[in-house]
Structure formats: C-alpha cells, structure tokens
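In practice, a research group might receive sequence data for several interacting partners and want a quick structural hypothesis before committing to experiments. The following worked case mirrors that situation: the sequences arrive first, and a predicted assembly follows.
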Amino acid sequence: MIETDICIIGAGPVGLFAVFEAGLLNLRCHLIDALPQTGGQLSEVYPQKPIYDIPGYPSIRAADLITELEKQIAPFHPTFTLGERVETLEKRGEADFLITTSEGTTVAAKAVVIAGGLGCFEPRKPELPDIEAYERHGLDYMVRDPEKYRGKRVVIAGGGDSALDWAVYLADIAGELSLIHRREDFRGAPDTGNKVLALAEQGKIRLFLSSTLSGVGGEGSLQYVDISGLEGSPTRLETDALVVLFGLSPKLGPIETWGLNIDKRAIEVDTRDYSTNIPGVYAIGDINTYPGKLKLILCGFHEAALMAHSAYAYMNGGKKVTLKYTTVTGISGF
Amino acid sequence: MIETDICIIGAGPVGLFAVFEAGLLNLRCHLIDALPQTGGQLSEVYPQKPIYDIPGYPSIRAADLITELEKQIAPFHPTFTLGERVETLEKRGEADFLITTSEGTTVAAKAVVIAGGLGCFEPRKPELPDIEAYERHGLDYMVRDPEKYRGKRVVIAGGGDSALDWAVYLADIAGELSLIHRREDFRGAPDTGNKVLALAEQGKIRLFLSSTLSGVGGEGSLQYVDISGLEGSPTRLETDALVVLFGLSPKLGPIETWGLNIDKRAIEVDTRDYSTNIPGVYAIGDINTYPGKLKLILCGFHEAALMAHSAYAYMNGGKKVTLKYTTVTGISGF
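A structural hypothesis for the assembly, expressed as tokens:
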C-alpha cells in the first residue's frame, strides 16, 4: 500500500504541476497514469509539436514542456504508478481515500485530484462482428514490438501518422505488407505518405486505397481479412497479423462510476477551488467543466493552485495556509 | 485619439499576456501603464529576483519573464502609452469606451481590461510636517539620474534593497554620503548589506543605525535633516540632498471612482469571465477579487484567457468564438 497526502490521477502537464503547488504547501503527491510515461497527450499524441500559448514561452515543444515541469517538481519528490489504470475510489472517512488500479496497486491518500485530461486513451476499433475474438490472436491496436512481425504477412489498416509510420518501418521487416485506407489521400504527414507511395511502387507495400476492412476470419486466430473497394466483390487476403491504427479515442472509464457529477464526459467542479461534489475529491484540467471553461493547459495550472490551497484546508480541519511568494521564500523541497 | 479593440490598463505580466489571448481571437490591444516601462512590479520592484512558480520554468528571473512575454505577444503588435496614469473611464455606449490619462491621452476601445496589479505604485513618505514642501527641492523618492548627486552631500533614508543598492552606488559619486536606517539590521540582500558595512568602515558611508529621520528643514530648498537615535537629542546634519527609499505603496487611484464594485482595494469579478459589474469592463490579475482568489501571476494568465473569449462575445453581439489550439493552427499575427 502506497501512502501519500494527495493522490493525483493523471500525469499530464496539469497533474505534474499540481505536485508543485501541493509541494509549496508541504503536501506529498503520488501520481497514477494509464500511459507508461508521464506527460499525457503531450508525450503520447504530439511530443514534437510546438505549443505557442504557454505563458512566457513564445514556443515550446510539447515534450520539452513536460521535461521542464518534471524539473520544476523534482524538489518535491513525487512518486508514480505508470501504465496502470485507476479502477476504484473508496472514501473510508474524512480525508481518508483508497484508490485501486487495474493491476491491484493500492494508494491511501488524504485527498484525491483527478487530472485525467480527456480520460484514458483507448484504440478506435473497426465496427465488425466478432472482431474482439481476434484481439491478441493476430489482431493488434498498437505496435509494441516490431520484431514480432518479422517475416510475417502483415495487414495495416489506417491512413494517419501511426499507420503510415509503421507501414514504412515494417516494410523492411514483414515478409509481406499491405496497407488498407478508406480514402485516396492519407491523413498523415505528406512526407511519410510519399514514402509509402514510393515503397508501393517498389513492390514493398501492397496498397488498398478507397477501401475498407469489411471482415476478419480464422479458426482460433486471425487467418484472413476481407477488403471492400469502390466496386466489385471483396478481396480476401490471407494474413498472419492485422494491425488496426485508427487512432486513440478518450474514455472517462471507471471514473464515471464514482458518483461524481458529470456533464458531457467532464466532471462538474466549483470554481472556488475546483472541488467536485465529493468533499476531498478535486478535478482539474481538461477533465473538469464549469461555466466559462476553456480546455487550455494554462487554465489547468491555475486550477491546480486553487485546488492545492483548498486540499490543504480540507485535510487540516479547515485551517487555511497563507500564500507565500516564491520570489521571497524560494523553494524548500522535501 | 488612439482607437483599439481592447484597452488594457496595466502592462505587467498579466496585462501583457492578455494581448496574446486577445490576439488569438484577432483582437487588437493598446496598453496604458503609469510606470515608464512594461513589466509592472517585475520590472520595477524585483527584476533580478528568480520566480519559481511560473509553470514550466523551474526558475526564471522576473525581468526575463517580461522579455519572453514581450516576444510572445510581438506577432500581435500591441501599442503602448507608458508613464501616464489613467484618470477617467467613460462608457459612451455598448462596446464604446473612452479612457483619458493624466497627460490627456485619449483611447477609444470596445472593451476595457483592468490589469493594474496592486495599483499605481506611489512612494512611501516619512510622516513629517511640511515634508512635501521639499519634494523636488532637495528631496527625492527615487534616483532617476545618479549624476545629479556628484560631489554633493547626500543622505539616504531606508534599509531595503533600493536604499542599500543606491548607497553602494552613490558612495563613489557623492561628496559625502550618509545612510539612516531605523533598525540595527538591514532588510535588503545580506551581500549588499555587507558591502555597505565595509564602505562604512572605509569611511565612505556614514551610518546612522537604529535611527529615524525626525525632521527636515531649509529655506526654499532642503538644507538639513534631523536624525534621532536611541538616546540623546537629535543630530542635525547639513545636506544638499535627501533620498527617501522607504519602498513603494500601491494605490488604486482614480479607478476607485469609476463605479466598480470594490472590496478591500480589489475589484469584484465573476469567475465565468472575470467581468466586473460594468458590462465590457474586465479585471484580471492581482487587482481583482473573487472567492478562492490567489494573487499569483499564473492565475492572472488563466483569467486573461477567459476574459478574451468573453470580450470577443461582448463586442460581437454575443457571438462565441470556437477554441482553436495553437498546436494545430499555429499563430497568425496581424
């Protein structure tokens, strides 16, 4: 059992900065995230993209912002449980919560902060009957280890960055590689799209454009996919592996069942302190909603500051802490 | 007459960042500040001090934060009236305001944003009868041009950073330099305090510690000061110049008379958009108050973002603007 002052669910930029604001008030934090690394969407979805609206940074790469936030919170030694999804929240008493993850990790905390962004990212799946039967039996929604596909017949479905990047990468590894995309143009980076077209001309990728995945089949494990084009009957393609890369779709997940007031997949909060309807449970960043809400990282930073002061009072019998300025006092780590 | 979309009163960090958020919505800004430079307190009071709680900056010097914010807003070409204090606000109609400054500059704007920090900084003055008669006649509350004191007999009163910094600087310039401080210890940086003590030992500064300025006098201009120590009668010291550096004290000033709801020298706002009781007039940063308010720069940044979206709707007949992400669209300057 991990024991801490504040359990922060979500290790994106807002969850990370919450550690800093809590640390200034001498509160320790433990963070849980379903992704295997910190940074949330910034690490997972757009690490190389510049962000222009972080105050004081005319431009900063998403991955660099996470690096700087990690440096900023280092004096307060946050601890992490990564790659596990939160499942249950139990309020055992005032300032006494127990959180359990998908892997059975338990965290006891005096306050809980949900900084879950848009929620857990889950892969978008093709709408085909029995598709789930082939998951982990030839059907994957992400490439964990490319070596798994060496020498095999592989079909990739999708036309975004992930699909194109992996098509180029696996063209040299797979025994036979096919790419199915429902349009004539790719959604991903034009450069990579051109590489895919060049590999198709060299015969290293078999392209099915304006085509959809219309069926999957096999005994026990995946053995073929059916591909429907604009005309004629579907083409049946024998394959060892199908990798569907239709992107990630955010889900609120188990948090929906915790008894929180939810409006359109966001948690309703009070703007005085970003508290939810459960005393001691806060929601900050993109996962919350209130009148005037803008889903901006910089707004989550503000929410984290007000949350920390309220959480301090909540776990100290209502005692308020006086705001001290870091320009005057500096930072005292743990 | 200057015409703009938003007139921002106060060019500190929050006023500057408001230009960015307004610019993203294609709104132009004009800023007015009583200080002769941008940056507010960060430039005037603590330019060299590191700030530790700007999200994404483990540490940044106050002056550097202002420099970065100026770079960030440059694409939106803000215009400035510096060194003038706002005096009057007239609402001529919906989305039609007229602002006038102490120097008679007029600005017509569709919305007004008060980002005035703690207000106008005015020097703290010694409580002595007739002290005002000597202002600009030998008595100064700031050092504008150190050369003015070359070869003269100078008395500095105060024990904070400004007093110590100028005592060290003027020790080489003044013909004779005395420093009066009411305590035995200085309030300013210990390093500078030690320099002052060393200069006193070398006979370059005459120190009056645990002493107060108890009188000033002279015909037409300042000719002497009286200094009272712990014991005995006051010492009369002949001097050409007295520089009182007791710090700056913020005043709300003429803004108090504009009909805004004010609570303890701060302007009451609605947290949905940081609007005041006058439609079209907003207050952001340290100058506003609401339940849960923390006087942090990072909170002012959030307030600026919500204000900009509301101001856009206010001046466009209630039409809301869709939030676009800079990671997706980049920045389009004017």
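Before designing any experiment, note the following. DSSP finds seven helices and 22 strands in chain A. Residues 2-121+248-332 of chain A form a domain with the FAD/NAD(P)-binding domain fold (CATH 3.50.50.60).
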